[in-house]
Specification:
Helix content: 25-40%
Number of helices: 13
Strand content: 15-25%
Strand order of the largest sheet: 9-8-7-10-12-14-15
CATH class of the largest domain: Alpha Beta
Shape: elongated
Number of strands: 15
């Protein structure tokens, strides 16, 4: 729930800070979206955690379920996640579905290891691990494929993200472990690939940056998303760039640094001409919904699809079959879909489909 307020996660005490900033929980909404696509319960037995960890969400659906375990407090923690998972394993479940981000995936790993298959419904800020479905709807489709025996079971990476370093603009990713997951290419995401380094890749970024700067429209607000390619554009302009945050530039001047959804909304009220510059996540292809939730559905609807510019190096684009969006707003995701131009070098673009 820390994404829209710019906290880049809610591990530890950041949760309380997110609440103070007015952030609302994303997990219940994503859980409801997942459950809304569970329309056939034949041969499906559901067990869930008590109260807000599952029970209160399921009560709104015409699905039969039972509750396992107990919670000692209304304020839950990672310890509760691990405890409930172990109690679910005692119920001899076939598949564990969890809703969260990389932090929840690590908690699940600690409790289940490789004992049972699991699947993550994405609702965190960072979902760099490959244990997640590409969306809540895809998670439901994956569930049915699993039930029908149409999904292979394989090991997927759980990545350990240093969230404190992430908040300070450093992406520190380590392999935490592996979980068994059902695999179907169209439903499950890959792990985030590290940014490519080296002379040719850096020159590629600089070429993209030169072209972008030379073709920026005057009196237009540019909102630069996270990443090393957008950072190269800021460097070409000789302004600071928050590597893992959103920055705003107007006529070559930095007018907003590491801004959250509220900060972006304030700028949209001030500037009428606005463009968003984003680069996809390597290996995954997401341009919205992973690590840049400051670009909320409200912001994206205001700016409009025609004012979205996608930039990426040749190496990154070469590893992707498509681009993806997962904003949490199904209708908006459909509106953002279709082909879009991606700037991959100086005055060179390729067409890639957003799904």
């Amino acid at each position: 729930m820390g994404g829209c307020v710019g906290l880049k996660g809610t591990d530890g005490e950041a949760y309380r800070q997110a609440v103070e900033l007015g952030a609302e929980p994303v997990t219940p909404k994503r859980a409801r979206e997942f459950l809304s696509h569970i329309t056939d319960q034949k041969n499906l037995t559901i067990v869930t955690a008590p109260r807000d960890m599952g029970e209160s969400v399921l009560e709104a659906f015409a699905l039969d379920f039972s509750v396992v375990g107990s919670l000692s407090s209304t304020v839950t923690s990672s310890g509760d996640t691990k405890k409930i998972v172990k109690e679910m394993l005692n119920e001899d479940i076939c598949l564990l579905v969890f809703v969260g981000g990389d932090g929840t995936a690590r908690d699940v790993h600690d409790a289940v290891a490789l004992e049972k298959p699991v699947m993550g419904v994405p609702s965190g800020v960072k979902m760099f691990s490959s244990v997640f479905a590409v969306s809540a709807r895809a998670a439901a489709d994956m569930l049915y494929a699993f039930m029908k025996g149409n999904a292979e079971i394989g090991e997927a990476e759980v990545l350990d993200i240093n969230e404190e370093a992430f908040r300070h603009g450093k992406l520190d990713i380590k392999l935490y472990g592996y979980l068994k997951v059902p695999r179907a290419k169209e439903f499950m995401q890959s792990s985030k690939e590290p940014a490519h380094a080296g002379g040719s890749c850096e020159e590629n970024k600089k070429a993209i940056a030169r072209y972008m700067v030379q073709n920026m429209t005057e009196n237009t607000l540019y909102l630069l998303g996270p990443g090393t390619t957008t950072k190269a554009i800021a460097e070409e302009l000789k302004v600071r760039k928050t590597l893992l945050g959103i920055d705003a530039i107007y006529n070559g001047v930095l007018v907003g640094e590491d801004i959250n959804e509220s900060g972006i909304t304030s700028l949209l009220e001030k500037y009428s001409a606005v463009k968003i510059l984003v680069s996809p996540i390597g290996g995954q292809g997401f341009i919205f919904g992973r690590g840049n939730q400051e670009f909320s559905p409200k912001v994206l609807r205001t700016v409009g699809r025609k004012n979205i510019i996608v930039v990426a190096t040749r190496d990154k684009i070469g590893s992707l079959e498509c681009l993806r969006v997962d904003t949490g707003d199904a209708e908006l995701d459909r509106l953002l879909g279709g082909y879009i131009k991606v700037l991959v070098d100086y005055n060179e673009e390729v067409l890639l489909k957003i799904i």
